[in-house]
Design brief:
By secondary structure, the chain is an alpha/beta fold. The protein has helices at residues 17-21, 23-26, 39-43, 48-57, 73-86, 97-111, 117-120, 195-214, 220-243, 248-268, 272-284, 288-303, 322-332, 340-357, 371-386, 400-412, and strands at residues 9-12, 32-38, 60-67, 90-95, 142-147, 159-163, 170-174, 182-185.
Length: 421
Protein backbone atom coordinates (compact mmCIF):
# COMPACT_ATOMS: atom_id res chain seq x y z
CA UNK A 1 0.00 0.00 0.00
CA UNK A 2 1.12 3.53 -0.81
CA UNK A 3 -0.41 6.85 0.18
CA UNK A 4 -0.59 10.56 -0.48
CA UNK A 5 -0.93 12.87 2.50
CA UNK A 6 -1.05 16.64 2.78
CA UNK A 7 -2.38 19.19 5.27
CA UNK A 8 -6.15 19.27 5.59
CA UNK A 9 -6.16 22.73 4.03
CA UNK A 10 -3.62 24.52 1.85
CA UNK A 11 -4.46 28.13 1.03
CA UNK A 12 -2.74 29.71 -1.96
CA UNK A 13 -2.77 33.07 -3.76
CA UNK A 14 -1.04 36.32 -3.05
CA UNK A 15 -2.79 38.15 -0.20
CA UNK A 16 -4.61 35.08 1.11
CA UNK A 17 -3.13 35.14 4.64
CA UNK A 18 -5.60 37.43 6.46
CA UNK A 19 -8.55 35.84 4.64
CA UNK A 20 -7.45 32.31 5.55
CA UNK A 21 -7.00 33.33 9.19
CA UNK A 22 -10.70 34.14 9.40
CA UNK A 23 -11.26 30.40 9.75
CA UNK A 24 -9.83 30.59 13.26
CA UNK A 25 -12.95 32.43 14.38
CA UNK A 26 -15.59 31.39 11.87
CA UNK A 27 -14.81 27.67 11.37
CA UNK A 28 -12.79 26.24 14.23
CA UNK A 29 -13.48 28.70 17.04
CA UNK A 30 -9.90 29.26 18.28
CA UNK A 31 -9.34 31.74 21.09
CA UNK A 32 -5.61 31.68 21.99
CA UNK A 33 -2.84 31.73 19.37
CA UNK A 34 0.86 31.12 20.01
CA UNK A 35 3.06 32.46 17.18
CA UNK A 36 6.54 31.01 16.58
CA UNK A 37 9.10 32.83 14.43
CA UNK A 38 12.68 34.10 14.47
CA UNK A 39 14.07 37.42 15.64
CA UNK A 40 14.69 38.85 12.17
CA UNK A 41 11.16 38.23 10.95
CA UNK A 42 9.68 39.51 14.19
CA UNK A 43 11.70 42.74 14.21
CA UNK A 44 10.98 43.36 10.53
CA UNK A 45 7.23 43.18 10.95
CA UNK A 46 6.43 39.83 9.36
CA UNK A 47 4.14 38.88 12.22
CA UNK A 48 2.14 42.12 12.05
CA UNK A 49 -0.26 41.01 9.32
CA UNK A 50 -1.17 38.06 11.53
CA UNK A 51 -1.38 39.87 14.85
CA UNK A 52 -3.45 42.68 13.29
CA UNK A 53 -5.93 40.11 11.98
CA UNK A 54 -6.05 38.28 15.31
CA UNK A 55 -6.68 41.57 17.10
CA UNK A 56 -9.48 42.36 14.65
CA UNK A 57 -11.11 39.01 15.45
CA UNK A 58 -10.63 39.40 19.20
CA UNK A 59 -8.27 36.42 19.47
CA UNK A 60 -5.65 36.58 22.24
CA UNK A 61 -2.08 35.96 21.06
CA UNK A 62 1.56 35.94 22.08
CA UNK A 63 4.77 35.53 20.07
CA UNK A 64 7.92 33.47 20.67
CA UNK A 65 10.71 34.78 18.44
CA UNK A 66 13.90 33.19 19.77
CA UNK A 67 14.23 30.48 17.10
CA UNK A 68 17.83 30.13 15.88
CA UNK A 69 18.83 29.43 12.24
CA UNK A 70 19.66 25.86 13.31
CA UNK A 71 16.97 25.38 15.96
CA UNK A 72 18.04 23.86 19.25
CA UNK A 73 16.21 21.63 21.67
CA UNK A 74 16.86 24.29 24.32
CA UNK A 75 14.87 26.96 22.46
CA UNK A 76 12.14 24.44 21.65
CA UNK A 77 11.82 23.64 25.34
CA UNK A 78 11.70 27.35 26.15
CA UNK A 79 8.90 27.81 23.66
CA UNK A 80 7.04 24.77 24.97
CA UNK A 81 7.32 26.12 28.53
CA UNK A 82 5.76 29.39 27.41
CA UNK A 83 3.04 27.40 25.67
CA UNK A 84 2.27 25.56 28.91
CA UNK A 85 1.76 28.92 30.62
CA UNK A 86 -0.21 30.51 27.79
CA UNK A 87 -2.27 27.39 26.92
CA UNK A 88 -2.87 28.06 23.21
CA UNK A 89 -5.47 26.23 21.17
CA UNK A 90 -3.67 27.20 17.95
CA UNK A 91 0.01 27.47 16.96
CA UNK A 92 1.11 29.53 13.96
CA UNK A 93 4.66 29.01 12.66
CA UNK A 94 6.00 31.82 10.48
CA UNK A 95 9.30 31.56 8.63
CA UNK A 96 11.50 29.13 6.79
CA UNK A 97 12.32 25.57 7.73
CA UNK A 98 13.95 26.50 11.04
CA UNK A 99 10.92 28.28 12.49
CA UNK A 100 8.57 25.56 11.31
CA UNK A 101 10.79 22.77 12.63
CA UNK A 102 11.09 24.48 16.01
CA UNK A 103 7.35 25.08 16.18
CA UNK A 104 6.62 21.43 15.37
CA UNK A 105 8.90 20.31 18.21
CA UNK A 106 7.29 22.81 20.60
CA UNK A 107 3.93 21.41 19.55
CA UNK A 108 5.07 17.90 20.46
CA UNK A 109 6.49 19.01 23.83
CA UNK A 110 3.35 21.02 24.61
CA UNK A 111 0.96 18.18 23.84
CA UNK A 112 3.18 15.38 25.16
CA UNK A 113 5.62 16.79 27.76
CA UNK A 114 6.88 13.34 28.77
CA UNK A 115 7.84 12.34 25.23
CA UNK A 116 11.18 10.56 24.68
CA UNK A 117 13.09 12.09 21.79
CA UNK A 118 15.25 9.01 21.34
CA UNK A 119 12.12 6.95 20.74
CA UNK A 120 10.62 9.47 18.33
CA UNK A 121 13.89 9.76 16.41
CA UNK A 122 14.20 6.00 15.78
CA UNK A 123 14.90 5.62 12.08
CA UNK A 124 12.87 3.41 9.79
CA UNK A 125 13.28 1.70 6.46
CA UNK A 126 9.64 2.12 5.53
CA UNK A 127 7.50 4.75 7.26
CA UNK A 128 4.54 2.34 7.07
CA UNK A 129 6.28 -0.18 9.34
CA UNK A 130 7.64 1.81 12.26
CA UNK A 131 8.21 0.04 15.57
CA UNK A 132 7.43 3.25 17.47
CA UNK A 133 3.94 4.74 17.38
CA UNK A 134 4.15 8.54 17.32
CA UNK A 135 1.89 10.29 19.85
CA UNK A 136 -1.40 11.67 18.59
CA UNK A 137 -1.11 15.37 17.76
CA UNK A 138 -3.68 18.16 17.59
CA UNK A 139 -5.62 17.36 20.72
CA UNK A 140 -4.57 20.62 22.39
CA UNK A 141 -3.65 22.89 19.50
CA UNK A 142 -4.34 23.32 15.79
CA UNK A 143 -1.12 23.86 13.79
CA UNK A 144 -0.80 26.43 10.98
CA UNK A 145 2.37 26.93 8.90
CA UNK A 146 3.09 30.17 7.01
CA UNK A 147 6.25 30.07 4.87
CA UNK A 148 8.32 33.20 4.26
CA UNK A 149 10.67 31.61 1.72
CA UNK A 150 10.07 29.53 -1.38
CA UNK A 151 12.06 26.38 -0.84
CA UNK A 152 11.86 24.19 2.25
CA UNK A 153 8.30 22.97 1.78
CA UNK A 154 8.10 22.47 5.56
CA UNK A 155 4.58 23.86 5.56
CA UNK A 156 3.34 20.63 3.93
CA UNK A 157 5.77 18.02 5.26
CA UNK A 158 5.75 15.64 8.24
CA UNK A 159 9.39 16.28 9.11
CA UNK A 160 11.27 18.29 11.73
CA UNK A 161 14.94 18.45 12.71
CA UNK A 162 16.11 19.74 16.09
CA UNK A 163 19.65 19.86 17.53
CA UNK A 164 20.59 19.02 21.09
CA UNK A 165 22.94 21.93 21.77
CA UNK A 166 24.71 20.00 24.55
CA UNK A 167 25.77 17.03 22.43
CA UNK A 168 25.46 18.37 18.89
CA UNK A 169 23.17 15.44 18.05
CA UNK A 170 20.48 16.23 15.51
CA UNK A 171 17.10 14.60 16.08
CA UNK A 172 15.30 14.11 12.76
CA UNK A 173 11.63 13.41 13.46
CA UNK A 174 9.42 12.03 10.71
CA UNK A 175 5.79 11.12 11.17
CA UNK A 176 2.55 12.23 9.59
CA UNK A 177 1.34 13.35 13.00
CA UNK A 178 3.76 16.27 12.48
CA UNK A 179 1.98 17.36 9.30
CA UNK A 180 0.56 20.88 9.77
CA UNK A 181 -3.22 21.08 9.85
CA UNK A 182 -3.19 24.13 7.59
CA UNK A 183 -0.64 25.75 5.29
CA UNK A 184 -1.08 29.34 4.14
CA UNK A 185 1.11 30.08 1.11
CA UNK A 186 0.96 33.83 0.61
CA UNK A 187 3.73 35.21 -1.60
CA UNK A 188 3.34 38.64 0.03
CA UNK A 189 5.36 37.10 2.86
CA UNK A 190 8.24 36.41 0.42
CA UNK A 191 8.38 39.56 -1.69
CA UNK A 192 11.45 41.06 -0.03
CA UNK A 193 13.50 37.91 0.47
CA UNK A 194 17.19 38.68 -0.23
CA UNK A 195 18.89 37.28 -3.29
CA UNK A 196 20.95 34.75 -1.35
CA UNK A 197 17.88 33.27 0.31
CA UNK A 198 15.97 33.27 -2.98
CA UNK A 199 18.75 31.30 -4.67
CA UNK A 200 19.37 28.83 -1.85
CA UNK A 201 15.71 28.09 -1.18
CA UNK A 202 14.82 27.93 -4.87
CA UNK A 203 17.54 25.42 -5.72
CA UNK A 204 16.54 23.42 -2.63
CA UNK A 205 13.10 23.02 -4.22
CA UNK A 206 14.81 21.77 -7.40
CA UNK A 207 16.57 19.07 -5.39
CA UNK A 208 13.29 18.18 -3.62
CA UNK A 209 11.61 17.63 -6.97
CA UNK A 210 14.43 15.64 -8.57
CA UNK A 211 14.88 13.41 -5.53
CA UNK A 212 11.14 12.80 -5.22
CA UNK A 213 11.05 11.75 -8.88
CA UNK A 214 13.98 9.35 -8.46
CA UNK A 215 12.88 8.00 -5.08
CA UNK A 216 11.83 4.40 -4.71
CA UNK A 217 8.62 5.68 -3.12
CA UNK A 218 7.66 7.85 -6.11
CA UNK A 219 4.10 7.52 -7.39
CA UNK A 220 2.01 9.06 -10.16
CA UNK A 221 0.70 11.51 -7.59
CA UNK A 222 4.12 12.76 -6.49
CA UNK A 223 5.48 12.74 -10.05
CA UNK A 224 2.84 15.19 -11.24
CA UNK A 225 3.63 17.68 -8.50
CA UNK A 226 7.41 17.33 -8.82
CA UNK A 227 7.46 17.72 -12.61
CA UNK A 228 5.20 20.77 -12.58
CA UNK A 229 7.23 22.31 -9.75
CA UNK A 230 10.45 21.87 -11.73
CA UNK A 231 9.01 23.49 -14.82
CA UNK A 232 7.85 26.50 -12.80
CA UNK A 233 11.18 26.84 -11.00
CA UNK A 234 13.22 26.81 -14.22
CA UNK A 235 10.99 29.54 -15.61
CA UNK A 236 10.44 31.75 -12.60
CA UNK A 237 13.42 31.38 -10.24
CA UNK A 238 15.79 33.54 -12.35
CA UNK A 239 13.09 36.23 -12.50
CA UNK A 240 12.42 36.08 -8.76
CA UNK A 241 16.17 36.25 -8.13
CA UNK A 242 16.80 39.23 -10.43
CA UNK A 243 13.68 41.31 -9.80
CA UNK A 244 12.44 40.29 -6.36
CA UNK A 245 9.38 42.30 -5.31
CA UNK A 246 9.30 43.98 -8.73
CA UNK A 247 8.11 40.68 -10.21
CA UNK A 248 5.24 39.54 -7.98
CA UNK A 249 4.18 36.90 -10.50
CA UNK A 250 7.56 35.18 -10.25
CA UNK A 251 7.43 35.33 -6.45
CA UNK A 252 3.97 33.75 -6.41
CA UNK A 253 4.90 31.03 -8.89
CA UNK A 254 7.99 30.18 -6.84
CA UNK A 255 5.90 30.04 -3.66
CA UNK A 256 3.55 27.55 -5.30
CA UNK A 257 6.37 25.52 -6.84
CA UNK A 258 8.16 25.16 -3.51
CA UNK A 259 5.00 23.95 -1.78
CA UNK A 260 4.24 21.52 -4.61
CA UNK A 261 7.78 20.13 -4.38
CA UNK A 262 7.26 19.85 -0.62
CA UNK A 263 4.11 17.79 -1.14
CA UNK A 264 6.02 15.54 -3.54
CA UNK A 265 8.87 14.74 -1.17
CA UNK A 266 6.57 14.57 1.86
CA UNK A 267 5.16 11.43 0.26
CA UNK A 268 7.96 10.09 -1.97
CA UNK A 269 10.82 11.13 0.36
CA UNK A 270 14.29 12.18 -0.75
CA UNK A 271 17.65 10.53 -1.42
CA UNK A 272 21.41 10.60 -1.07
CA UNK A 273 21.78 14.19 -2.31
CA UNK A 274 20.01 15.40 0.81
CA UNK A 275 21.92 12.92 2.96
CA UNK A 276 25.21 14.36 1.72
CA UNK A 277 23.97 17.96 1.91
CA UNK A 278 22.93 17.50 5.54
CA UNK A 279 26.49 16.51 6.48
CA UNK A 280 28.20 19.08 4.26
CA UNK A 281 26.15 21.76 5.98
CA UNK A 282 26.77 20.38 9.45
CA UNK A 283 30.54 20.06 9.03
CA UNK A 284 31.28 23.12 6.89
CA UNK A 285 28.32 25.47 7.46
CA UNK A 286 27.26 25.70 3.83
CA UNK A 287 23.57 26.72 3.56
CA UNK A 288 21.38 23.69 2.97
CA UNK A 289 20.05 24.68 -0.45
CA UNK A 290 23.55 25.54 -1.70
CA UNK A 291 24.89 22.23 -0.39
CA UNK A 292 22.27 20.38 -2.40
CA UNK A 293 23.10 22.42 -5.50
CA UNK A 294 26.80 21.54 -5.24
CA UNK A 295 26.00 17.81 -5.15
CA UNK A 296 23.15 17.53 -7.64
CA UNK A 297 25.24 16.81 -10.76
CA UNK A 298 27.15 14.02 -9.07
CA UNK A 299 24.02 12.40 -7.65
CA UNK A 300 22.16 12.49 -10.98
CA UNK A 301 25.05 10.71 -12.68
CA UNK A 302 25.41 8.25 -9.81
CA UNK A 303 21.72 7.35 -9.78
CA UNK A 304 21.62 6.92 -13.55
CA UNK A 305 23.88 3.88 -13.60
CA UNK A 306 22.18 0.81 -15.02
CA UNK A 307 24.63 -1.46 -13.22
CA UNK A 308 24.62 -0.28 -9.60
CA UNK A 309 26.64 -2.05 -6.96
CA UNK A 310 23.42 -2.31 -5.00
CA UNK A 311 19.83 -1.35 -5.68
CA UNK A 312 17.62 0.26 -3.10
CA UNK A 313 15.91 -1.72 -0.40
CA UNK A 314 12.22 -1.50 -1.25
CA UNK A 315 11.77 -0.26 -4.82
CA UNK A 316 8.53 -0.01 -6.75
CA UNK A 317 10.26 -1.55 -9.76
CA UNK A 318 12.28 -4.63 -10.64
CA UNK A 319 15.36 -3.13 -12.29
CA UNK A 320 17.26 0.17 -12.34
CA UNK A 321 15.30 2.77 -14.28
CA UNK A 322 16.39 6.11 -12.89
CA UNK A 323 18.08 7.12 -16.15
CA UNK A 324 14.70 6.80 -17.85
CA UNK A 325 13.12 8.86 -15.07
CA UNK A 326 15.62 11.70 -15.59
CA UNK A 327 15.08 11.48 -19.36
CA UNK A 328 11.37 11.95 -18.70
CA UNK A 329 12.20 15.11 -16.74
CA UNK A 330 14.32 16.38 -19.64
CA UNK A 331 11.46 15.73 -22.08
CA UNK A 332 9.01 17.56 -19.81
CA UNK A 333 11.36 20.56 -19.68
CA UNK A 334 11.65 20.47 -23.50
CA UNK A 335 15.37 19.75 -23.45
CA UNK A 336 17.02 18.14 -26.48
CA UNK A 337 18.50 14.67 -26.74
CA UNK A 338 18.15 11.60 -28.92
CA UNK A 339 19.07 9.07 -26.26
CA UNK A 340 18.43 8.86 -22.54
CA UNK A 341 22.11 9.51 -21.93
CA UNK A 342 22.00 12.70 -24.00
CA UNK A 343 18.84 13.82 -22.21
CA UNK A 344 20.53 13.29 -18.83
CA UNK A 345 23.51 15.40 -19.85
CA UNK A 346 21.19 18.12 -21.15
CA UNK A 347 19.27 18.05 -17.87
CA UNK A 348 22.51 18.47 -15.92
CA UNK A 349 23.54 21.27 -18.28
CA UNK A 350 20.19 23.02 -17.71
CA UNK A 351 20.61 22.71 -13.94
CA UNK A 352 24.12 24.17 -14.18
CA UNK A 353 22.82 27.06 -16.29
CA UNK A 354 20.09 27.72 -13.72
CA UNK A 355 22.68 27.73 -10.92
CA UNK A 356 24.81 30.17 -12.89
CA UNK A 357 21.84 32.53 -13.39
CA UNK A 358 21.27 32.66 -9.63
CA UNK A 359 25.00 32.94 -8.91
CA UNK A 360 25.61 29.63 -7.21
CA UNK A 361 29.27 28.69 -7.47
CA UNK A 362 30.46 25.51 -9.16
CA UNK A 363 32.35 23.62 -6.45
CA UNK A 364 32.52 23.13 -2.70
CA UNK A 365 36.03 24.57 -2.81
CA UNK A 366 34.65 27.79 -4.32
CA UNK A 367 32.82 28.42 -1.02
CA UNK A 368 36.09 28.87 0.86
CA UNK A 369 36.37 25.40 2.37
CA UNK A 370 40.07 24.69 2.80
CA UNK A 371 41.26 21.47 1.20
CA UNK A 372 42.81 20.14 4.42
CA UNK A 373 39.66 20.85 6.42
CA UNK A 374 37.52 19.15 3.79
CA UNK A 375 39.74 16.06 3.51
CA UNK A 376 40.04 15.79 7.30
CA UNK A 377 36.25 15.51 7.59
CA UNK A 378 35.64 13.49 4.40
CA UNK A 379 35.53 10.02 5.96
CA UNK A 380 33.23 11.08 8.79
CA UNK A 381 30.92 12.98 6.42
CA UNK A 382 30.74 9.99 4.09
CA UNK A 383 29.92 7.57 6.90
CA UNK A 384 27.26 9.86 8.35
CA UNK A 385 25.71 10.51 4.92
CA UNK A 386 25.48 6.75 4.35
CA UNK A 387 23.71 6.49 7.70
CA UNK A 388 21.32 9.39 7.04
CA UNK A 389 17.58 8.68 7.00
CA UNK A 390 17.24 10.02 3.42
CA UNK A 391 19.62 7.43 1.97
CA UNK A 392 17.10 4.64 2.40
CA UNK A 393 14.79 5.85 -0.38
CA UNK A 394 17.55 6.54 -2.91
CA UNK A 395 17.05 4.34 -6.01
CA UNK A 396 20.69 3.23 -6.00
CA UNK A 397 21.98 2.25 -2.58
CA UNK A 398 25.47 3.79 -2.26
CA UNK A 399 28.61 2.34 -0.81
CA UNK A 400 30.44 4.65 1.58
CA UNK A 401 33.31 4.76 -0.91
CA UNK A 402 30.89 5.95 -3.61
CA UNK A 403 29.59 8.74 -1.39
CA UNK A 404 33.18 9.73 -0.68
CA UNK A 405 33.94 9.90 -4.40
CA UNK A 406 30.90 12.09 -5.05
CA UNK A 407 32.06 14.47 -2.32
CA UNK A 408 35.53 14.62 -3.89
CA UNK A 409 34.11 15.28 -7.35
CA UNK A 410 31.90 18.05 -5.98
CA UNK A 411 34.81 19.60 -4.10
CA UNK A 412 37.34 19.66 -6.94
CA UNK A 413 34.96 20.11 -9.88
CA UNK A 414 34.03 18.19 -12.99
CA UNK A 415 37.37 18.68 -14.74
CA UNK A 416 39.49 17.43 -11.86
CA UNK A 417 41.12 14.02 -11.63
CA UNK A 418 40.69 12.62 -8.14
CA UNK A 419 39.99 9.28 -6.62
CA UNK A 420 38.76 8.29 -3.19
CA UNK A 421 41.47 6.68 -1.17
Amino acid sequence: MLWFRAPEKVYIKRGCLPVALEELKEEINRKRVFIVTDTFLYKNGYTKVITDKLDEMGIVHTTFYNVEPDPSLKSAKEGAKEMETFEPDCIIAIGGGSAMDAAKIMWVLYEHPDVDFLDMAIRFQDIRKRVYKFPKMGEKAYFIAVPTSAGTGSEVTPFAVITDERTGVKYPLADYELMPDMAIVDSNMMMNAPKGLTAASGIDAVSHSLEAIASMMATDYTDGLALRALKMIFEYLPRAYEKGADDPEAREKMANAATMAGMAFANAFLGVCHSMAHKLGAFHHIPHGIANALLLDEVLRFNSSNVPEKMGTFPQYEHPHTLERYAEVADYLNLDGNTNEEKLENLIKAIDELKKKIEIKETIRDYGIEEKDFLDTLDEMSQQAFDDQCTGSNPRYPLISEIKQMYLNAYYGKNSKNDAV
